[in-house]
Every structure is written in C-alpha cells, then in structure tokens.
Amino acid sequence: MNRLPAQAFRLLLAALLLPPAAAAQPDDWARIRAGTEARLNAIAAEAEGVLGVCAVDVVSGERIAVNADAVFPQASAIKVAVLMELQRQGKEGRLDLAQSIPVTAAAKAGGSGVLQGFSDGGSTLALQDLGVLMIVASDNTATNMLIDRLGMKAVNDMLAGLGLKRTRLQRRMMDQQASLRGDENIATPAEAARIMELLGKGEFVDRTVSARVLEVLRLGKTATSVVRGAVPGAVPVANKEGEIAGVWTEWAFVDLPGRPYALAMMHKLGTGDAPPAAMRGAAELIHGYFSRLARATKYGTYGPAPAK
User: Across-strand partners of 267?
Assistant: First the structure.
C-alpha cells in the first residue's frame, strides 16, 4: 500500500480541517441581518407612535420586520389594491380600460387631487387615466370613481384570492362617517410587502399586468416619500404613500440591481404633519442592508455602489 509523503499528508489534513469559505458566508449574513433587525426594533421602540415594517428580500424570500402582523389604517396606500383590480379586470376583458366615464358630483371627494374642481358631468376620462390620476396625483375623486366601477367586493375578493386576510378596502376616500364607524381601509406590513413582492416578481395575474401596475406606481414622485428619500435616484422605485391624521404609510418595490426588495412601512398614533423620523430611519437602515448585500463578494469585500 502506497503511503503519502509526510508533507503531503499534513497539507491534506489541514485542508480537511479548514471550513469551506463559501459555507461561512450564510453565517456572516445571518449576523448582519440579525443586527439590522435589532436596530430596526430599537427604532420602533423609540418611535413616537406605533411603527410597523416588513422588508422582503425578493431573491431569497427572507424578511426583516417589526410589528409586521399589526393592523394599520392605510390612507391612500390602499389605492395600490384598487389599481391592481383595475388592471386585472382589464386583462380579463371585464372592463375596457379605454372606456371613458363622466366626472360627476356624486363621486367627488376632498383632499388630494384635481378632479374635485371639475364641473358636474362636464368631462369624461378613460378608466386607465383615472388609475394614473389615482396614483400620481393621489386623486380621491378618481379613486372613488374606480371603486364604484370595479366594486369594493371585487377588490376585496382579489385580495382574499392572494391569501391576504387583513388587507381590506372598506370605504370610499374621505368618507369620515364610515371611518368613525370603524369601516377603515386596513393592511398589515407583512401583507402589503407581500403585495409588492408579487408585483416585483411578476406574479400578480401575469408579468404584463404586474409590470403595468409597477409602471404606474413608478410615476409618483412625491417629496414626502421616505423610501425614495433613502434610495439613490438611479434605482427604480415603485411606491405609494398614504397620510391621514396620525397615520403615515408607504408600500414600495425597490428594484435594486442584484438585490430587489419589497418594503412596507406604517406608523399610527403619531403627531405632526411630516413623515415620522422613525420611518425615515427604517427606510435608510433597510436600504443600507440590501445595498451591502447586493455589493458583497464571497469573502466580504464590496463591489462598486449603484450610481446616485
């Protein structure tokens, strides 16, 4: 029987005792992720109100979250669900999205948007255009017109069909009496992030419908978006914010090269008329984590950052 030379034997033994370099990497990122989630929990603990966050890694499916299953009022962020149902019914041939309908006094709502200033029955707009106004201008009248045409039940049936149990459209925009009765438009961070994940992966109806929803959501570029404020301008962001008294929300899909992620952030029982500092801190923390993950090499060095 041939024997290995002593030096070769020692080299072989050393190689067998060394842990594989690649195997150590998941442990490295598990520690980074745990530290990120600990910092997120600290941000939530110091928030002036109640903060809920859920970020989903679209590549791995892993998530970073705090208060992810708590129910929050949604304000205008719920308009994402209305846009999804609009595109779904158009795809299925149940609606002609090029069909124009009149802007009437019955649909008008205060708050954001321009259609509330239109004359009663003096103008008509295509359903597709109402969807754009609903997102880009956050037009409440356009939203009510679409809710009336689509049916609130249809929107909720679509959400239930996606396996979402707590995300529901329960009133038209600016219906204060319904809100006081408890008929609030609601969601959880986990379910909102799931919606954005499905859109980002092209799994809502099909890739064409998902892409169209994201295309419209990318048109909105409001200064109050905490996600856009945390992300370099070259990185595409599809998002919708919402704000009512005491509440700030935002749903987003961030198409970060190499590491796209879905993010939902919600804050209730707050004060002031600007996005809470806790939401801004959470958005910066989450984007920082995914930026590191996208740039990291096998051994923990970084490649070039995305252009700003």
Answer: 51, 248
What domains are defined for the chain?
Answer: 44-295 (3.40.710.10)
φ, ψ at 185 (rounded to 5°)? -80, 125
Report the distance separating Cα 88 and Cα 79, nearest Å.
14
**Nearest CA to 251 among 241, 259, 261?**
241
Q: Phi first, then psi: what are they for 252, rounded to 5°? A: -150, 150
CA angle 204-210-211, nearest 5°? 165
pLDDT grade for 16, boundaries at 50, 70 and 90? very low
> pLDDT tens digits for 81-107?
999 999 999 999 999 999 999 999 988
User: Which runs of consecutive H residues, i.e. helices, occur in the chain?
Assistant: 6-17, 21-46, 79-91, 127-136, 140-150, 152-161, 176-181, 189-200, 207-219, 226-230, 277-295
- The backbone torsions φ and ψ at residue 48, rounded to the nearest 5 degrees and listed phi first, read -70, -25
Cα dist from 272 to 62, 127, 268, 275, whole Å: 33, 35, 11, 8
* Structure confidence by residue, pLDDT tens digits, 123-150: 999 999 999 999 999 999 999 999 999 9
